Amino acid sequence: MKNYTKIAVTAAILSMVCVQGGASIAKQLFPAIGPIATSALRIGLSAILLYFINRPNLRGLNRQQWFYCGAYGLGIAAMNLIFYMAIQRIPLGLGVTIEFIGPLFLAFALSRKLLDVVWALLACLGILLIVPWQSGSLDPLGLFLAFLAGTFWAVYIVMGSRVSKVMEGRHAVSVGMIIATIAILPFAIWDGALFDVTPSLFGMGLLVAILSSALPFSLDMVALKHLPAKTFSILTSLQPAFGALSGLLFLKEYLTWTQWASVACVVLASIGTTVFSKKEDQKEGAT
């Protein structure tokens, strides 16, 4: 059990690094084609890549598997599309932190021990600190979209955990991405910017697809198979740290010292829940 936990935690961290690096590249596409077309490129190309790599047997899925894959795929589509619309208006690190409210509330809902609540409260403090409450330049629509994306992030975690229990993870990701592509395609056609994609923009979109979807969603399946949804939810509190660093390095988006302190809070919450989750797993394995 201990080795499985280490592998799961490592997979979750690598997933977050990929996602935030890909988000920084994606944001550079916004001036040219906007967030909707960028999201469609990311999800659509990821679906194609994962289908040919994993070769899921679509005809062999039962009703329960289709239901879970459908909810999982819709969560992916909504989470990514709305989040890209959010970070078009607000900095990446701020957007990721506000989005984390979704997994945070999920962690509260699934908590059964006082210590779980302590870690969740610490992460909540971090979220409260990162928001520039007195800034007149803050985009309220961007904040709302980030919060809404977080709601679908929680859906993604719950359904990802369930679907990983009823079918092979790599096949679940592949089918989920196909469903996400079908869901997001009408918005991309309506937007029209997808038809303005040039070969160079397509290449960037392919890189975003690999970093932000194909790799991390596959890694998340590894993590969700061996970690409780509650633990995975608080572990993802590392996302704001990776998002802030990625925004700083690649987009020159700067946070205040207070906002960096908030990142430290959510990182500590993540470390705390991971360490104590390992101890809990060791006790379960010994019984």
From TrEMBL:
Q: Does the keyword Transmembrane apply?
A: yes
User: What does the UniProt entry say about where the protein is found?
Assistant: Membrane
Query: Member of which family?
Result: Belongs to the EamA transporter family.
Instruction: Tell me which residues make up the EamA domain.
Output: 141-273
Task: Give the SUPFAM superfamilies listed for this entry.
Answer: Multidrug resistance efflux transporter EmrE (SSF103481)
Q: Any signal peptide, and if so, which residues?
A: none
Main site of residence? Answer: membrane
Q: Which UniProt keywords apply?
A: Membrane, Transmembrane, Transmembrane helix
> Which ranges does the record mark as transmembrane?
36-54, 66-86, 92-110, 117-135, 141-159, 171-189, 201-219, 231-251, 257-276
- GO cellular component terms? membrane
Q: Topology versus the membrane, per the UniProt entry? A: Multi-pass membrane protein
Q: What's this protein's name?
A: Inner membrane transporter RhtA
